[in-house]
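#help-structures
NK: newbie question, is this the right format to request a structure? protein is PhoX family phosphatase
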Amino acid sequence: MIEQGGLSRRRFLGAGAVLGAAAFFTLSPMSRSLAAALAPSGSPLLGFKAVPASTADTLVVPEGYQVERLISWGDPLFADVAAFSNRLSDNTAAQQKRQFGDNNDGMSLFPVDEQTAILAVNNEYTNYELMFEHQGKNMSAADVEYAQAAHGVSILTLTQQEKGWRFDINGRFNRRIDANTPMRISGPAQGHKLLKTKADPKGEVALGTFNNCANGMTPWGTYLTCEENFNGYFGTDADLEISSEFARYGIGRKDAGYSWYKFDQRFDLSKEPNEPHRFGWVVEIDPRDPSALPVKRTALGRFKHENAELVIAQDGRVVVYLGDDERGEHIYRFVSRDTYNPTNQDANRNLLDEGELFVAKFNEDGSGEWLSLCHGQNGLTAENGFANQADILIHARQAATFVGATTMDRPEWVAVHPHEPMVFCTLTNNKNRGVADSQPVGGPNPRAENHYGQIVRWVPTAGEHTAKDFQWDLFLMAGNPNLYGGTPYAGSSNITADNMFNSPDGIGFDQAGRLWIQTDGNYSNQGDFVGQGNNQMLCADPKTGEVRRFLTGPVACEITGLAFTPDQKTLFVGVQHPGEKGAPSSFPLGDHTVPRSSVMVISRTDGGVIGT
Ligand code: FEO
Ligand code: CA
Ligand code: CA
C-alpha cells in the first residue's frame, strides 16, 4: 500500500465526533440543528454483545440469538418440483426455473397479514465451479439454459409458524423470474432505436433480468430489482470492433466466462448489437401478482446498478438514490415529476417513468450538488452528442462524465435514515484511486489505492431530498488499525481491532435508526486484511459513530441482503457464494455437501427486538 494521500482531518469526522460536538459544526447551520436533534439520548442504540472475527465455515450470531436456514439455491418453490441434487449432473434447467435461484443478493419483505408476508429476493449470478461437474469448462446449450434459469428474482411466500417465519412451499405468491421472463420496457427509452432487436422490433419487451444485485421497495408495494454487471454476459467470436459506448460499460468481445453468447444468439454482439442496451436498468415488480409483467424503468438510467433507495420528499415527489458500482463511477438521484398518492396506490403505478435524473458532485469543502442529466441542460445537447433524453439515459455514464460528476470509490448501496434527512452510501474500495488520472485522491475518496472502503454521508439542504445542494462528510473509513496505526489506512477512529472489516457493501436501516453494514471484501485474513476474517455484518449507531460486529459468515462468502419483519424481531440475511473458487465450504448443510447460497432467519431466543 502506498503512502497516504492528502487526507484532510477537517473532511474526516472521526468516531465520537461523528455528529457530536465537532462534527456537523464544520458543515452548514442546518446541520447544526440536526446534530442537536441526533444528540445521543439515554438508552444506547446497540445492545448486543459483539462477535469476534471468524474464519469458521458457519454463520456466527451474538449470544442470545439463533439462526435458521430459510432457503438455499435449488430448493423447490413449488411442491411438485425436485430438490437440488448434490450430484450436479442431476440438476436441470426445467427444475431450476421453479427452484430458488442462485447467489441470493438484495431482498425486501412485504407484509400481507399477521401470518403472511412476501420476501422478494434477487438471484444475482452463478458460480460454474459449484454448478457443473465440468466447472464451466465444457458448456452446452442445456448448461446455459440451466444457468439462465438460476438468475433473476425469487418471490417467496412466508408464513408465521410455531418456530418463526418460514417459507411456505404452497404459498400463493411463489414465483420465479429469470433471464428469459418477458418484461415491459417503460419510460423515456421505450421504443428507442438502440433498444430494438430482431425479436423485438418495437423495443418494448425485453427478455429477462440478470445480475440482479441489490434492491429497493416502494410505498405502493412494489419491488425494485437492480441490474448490475450485465456486460459480462455478452461477447462474440466475430472480429467485431467494440464502440467506445460499449467500452465505457465494460462490454467487449470476451464475456465474463458465462458462455451464453455461444449458445444463445441474443448475447452475441455480432448478431444482436442492441441487446446490451436492454440491460443495466432498474426493474419494478408487483410481488402480489404472480402474473404481472415486470417493468424496466428507463427513467432511472442505465448503469451497473447497486440498489434503489426510495424516499418520499416533503412535497410528495419520489426520490430514488442510486449507486453505479465500478471504480470511478458515480452516485445518482432520480426525482419524480408527479407526487405520491397515499390514498390511491393505482395512481402511483407509473411514478418512476417521468422525472429528472441527477448525478452527484462532491466538493472538497464539504458541500455538494446534484447536476441535472436532463436533455438541454448542462450542455447535454445534440451538438454535444446527446440526441434526446433516451440517449442520455442509455448512456448515463457518458452524460455524467460530460457534466462533471465526481468519480467515486465504487458506489454500492445507499440508505436513508428513517427519521432524519441523512443519506449514507458505501464506497466499497478502489485500487485505482490515485493511480488512474481520472480518479484523483480527495473529497469523499481520500485514500490512494483504497483497499478498505468508506461510508460517505450527506444531508440535503433544508433536509429536503429534492434540494439541489447538500453537505457531506465521511461516516467511517474501514481500515486495519493493527497494521496501519497513525495513518489513514488504520481507518477512522471508530474502527478498532475488535470491529475492523473491509469493503462495506450492503447497508440498510432498521426502524429505530440502527445502520446495518454488510461486507463483500477480501476474506483471505492475510496481508492488509489480517485479523478481519470472513465477510461479516456490523451495526452502527449513526449518532455516536459506534460500530459493532453482529455476525460473521462462512468460508468465502459475501454477506448481502437484509430485511426485517415489521415488529423488528426477525431479520433475514443473505449468505452469498460460500465456497466460491474452490474454497473449503459445505455451508449450509455441512457433511461435504455442495456449498449453496442461502437466506438465513435470525431471531432472539427471548423473542426481543434485533439489535437492542
Ligand atoms: Fe453486486 Fe456491487 O455488488
Ligand atoms: Ca453489492
Ligand atoms: Ca457484491
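mod (FA): yep, format's fine, and the C-alpha cells are attached above. The chain has a mean pLDDT of 94.
NK: thank you!
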